[in-house]
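Margin note from the TA: students keep mixing up input and output lines. Inputs are the sequences; the output is the structure of the whole complex. Example:
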Amino acid sequence: MDVSVKNLRKEFDRYPALHDVSLDIRSGELIALLGPSGSGKTTLLRLIAGLEQPTLGSIHFGDEDASHKTVQERNIGFVFQHYALFRHMTVADNIAFGLTVRPRGERPPKAEIRRRVSELLEMVQLSGLEKRYPNQLSGGQRQRVALARAMAIEPRVLLLDEPFGALDAKVRKELRRWLREFHDRTGHTTVFVTHDQEEALELADRVVVMSQGKIEQVGSSDDVYDRPNSPFVFSFIGDSASVPVSIVDGSVRFRGDEIGVAAPEGDIVSGEATLFFRPQDVAVVTDPSAPALEGRVVTSRRLAGTRIADLDIGGADDPLHVEIEVPLDAQAANGTSIRFRPLRFKLFAK
Amino acid sequence: MTTTAAASGRWRLRQPSVIPGFGLTLGFSLAYLTLIILIPLAGLVWRSASLSGAEFLGILSDPRTVNALKVSFGTAFIAAIVNVVFGVIVAWVIVRYEFPGRRIVDAVVDLPFALPTAVAGIALAALYAPNGWIGQILNVVGIKAAFNPTGIVIALVFIGLPFVVRTVQPVMEEIDSEIEEAAATLGANRFQTVFRVLLPGLAPAILTGFALAFARGVGEYGSVIFIAGNIPYVSEIAPLLIVIRLEEFSYGAATAIATIMLALSFAMLLVINLIQAWSRRRYGHGA
């Protein structure tokens, strides 16, 4: 089921949590809403679910305007961070809940419900645990019960709010891979919220990067990592360094000096800008006469196969720290000077 | 959780924790309970044991005793049921809604605890008597609300309300609103959410509140005697009968009635506690 969100605005006590957000989610897609806390990602998810009412804007499921439908009518599957299982019910009763609350006419017969429950338990790999109570399960098992419960009603869209947030690192990794397989098998349109970029990049078909109630960028993992379209996305996703520069006739200068970097054709021609680059996308310059950024090593640390140097390129009066990757054999003792040039970078006008 | 430990050795002494003082605190608790509760109760039983078996049975089968016990336990039971229904609603309103005066409502709930019971009894009697404010209105529709068992129930409802509200309230506060939202996303309407999701989760706390209100109602004396009318065989409560027997200097009869009340109350509270222990073991939570 396609889901489209049009010009959505949500205010809590006059304070806007979401400004004019529009998003098209394609049928069968696995999409991540990624952002720091307070970015409005959970609010957007809850609006799609119908757990909150928008101040302005509309939400469409397929061709149908669902903006004024209640949660119950929307037929969505929602998985909460803290599972929200009914603890006085067994695993089987939890999963069957969505079917047993249907009006008598639409309710499947008991045997059919039982069959569906055991099918779902098999799907989430928890067969044999139907008689257990939620507090007798591990966190990962509980979250899978919650997913099975949400799937039982055959939802049009599956919405997950930080589904792995309360789990430890190892279980989270396993469950992440498992969810991807689960999605590929069932083909449900799925939206999940996360603040963990690794999770979003690894799992999602498309990532929606959000900040301060707005969508910053929508794209594949490669898009948002390799072609970030805003300073926020560049600094939020992956490691990066930013340097304030001025551009004069297409040549990038740092505090007046050329650094051997030219602004790309069609980009900013002149004026103040910020230069963004990633630590690994730099080359050390050995020729002392060639223009480059120069910095003094403050600290350096070995990180698996590489060495990361923390450089001060501003000088003692006005320090400016950037981190770059240097070759393992490079001279990077504290206090030594290193000259480098970003190979891949992006300029954003101030 | 404690479930696994309980399953492996239910009848063994619990292993002392890292915090020392298990022996000391257990010893203190037992000594204290003995001094405060067990010795007076043992004295009661001892005193009633001075009666011969036939005398004891004679007092128990006396229709006046039987009726007094019926009135005491019956009215306390009805009052506790009423309190469960309305106490849960009051607790819900206090926990769930923000409204002006919420703190005041919260404080008002405790008043029956603080008020001298005799004062409550006199006030209720004045209000519900056939010529009282409320009694007049009820009289018109043909309800007599004072000087009969209905009056006793009214007094016990008043006395028991805080027990239900105060035991249910903290557990209700812990219910995550996500639970309700989860039920709604699964298609449950408000009614189904309340009766299939929320109330079953509160059942242990409600049961505790019921037990406390009921126990208090069985033993209540001060507020009841003013509104009950105290007609033997009809609206005479067992505690009053005990006092009457004491005033007649028949201590044996008084202690015999007291002993049977004690036995009945203890049996009921024990059953309720067992139900709770069972539900706690099963769901891993409770009041």
